[in-house]
Amino acid sequence: MKILLISDIHANYPALQAVAKYAPPADFDLICNCGDTTVYAPFPNETIQWLKRHKAISILGNTDRKILKLAKGKQLKKPNKPDKRIMYSSTFDALSKSSLNYLKSLHKKNIFHVSGVKVGLFHGSPEDTDEFLFNTTSDDRFRALAKKAKQDIICVGHSHTPFHKQFEGIHFINPGSAGRMFDANPAASFAILEIKKEKITVSHYRVPWKIKKMKKALRDNHLPDIYISMYEQGLKLN
């Protein structure tokens, strides 16, 4: 069983295309997406259509949940900064009915079995969808989660930080962000999970993508220039 793990695409379709070129979907048995599919780049429909086309197993992230709030006519309390809020409103305005229905069909988690192994997809952590798990998170925290775990493999996103850790026999995997890394390296991040009998292996990868296409789209859609800087530098500047 070979699984392509992605997360936090944030509507960055050019980066997703680069991932797919390096790791062709046809080479995998499954594609799993740990949420934050939308917001912060102007390609939400293209991104969602790609996930649908390749039958990815996806869950909701915090940005996706806020888009669904807007769909219900609710006001967002956060983010407060205008340059962030416009990324939510522009995403919601751009979403097709099909794309919005796709988001509505997703849940905060997805649990499934493959090759005799139980896998859980969560955005933050199994206990809190908004919890940040980093490669620097304490071992005690991972052990506490492992002791309560009901899955053999726990895949998360949210922190945009790639890691693979094992505690109490439980594997914790974050593929990093396929669309918006914050470690001063703009290259898209993803992971490949392989399950062969009882052996579980995880490999992380980074691939460059066409930032010029992103810059043009941001400018064409009159979106804040700070996002051009963020994508160029691979940093979170707001």
Largest sheet: 5 strands, mixed
Strand percentage: 15-25%
Termini separation = 39 Å
Order of strands, main sheet, comes to: 3-2-1-9-10
Question: If helices are DSSP runs of H or I spanning 4 or more residues, what is the number of helices?
Answer: 8
Rounded to an integer in angstroms, the radius of gyration calculated over CA atoms is 17 Å
Could you name the CATH topology? Purple Acid Phosphatase, chain A, domain 2
CATH class descriptor: Alpha Beta
What's the shape?
A: globular
Percent helix range: 25-40%
Q: Can you name the CATH architecture?
A: 4-Layer Sandwich
What is the chain-wise order of helices and strands? EHEHEHHHEEHEEEEEHH
**How many separate domains?**
1
Structural class: alpha/beta
The overall pLDDT, averaged over residues, is 97
What is the β-strand count?
10
CATH homologous superfamily caption: Metallo-dependent phosphatases
Question: Any low-confidence stretches, pLDDT <50, length ≥5?
Answer: none
What report would you give on this structure?
There is one protein chain. With 238 residues, the chain is of the alpha/beta class. It is 33% helix and 23% strand. The protein contains 8 helices and 10 strands. It has a 5-stranded mixed β-sheet. Helix 3 (62-71) crosses helix 4 and helix 7 runs antiparallel to helix 8. It is globular and about 50 Å long.
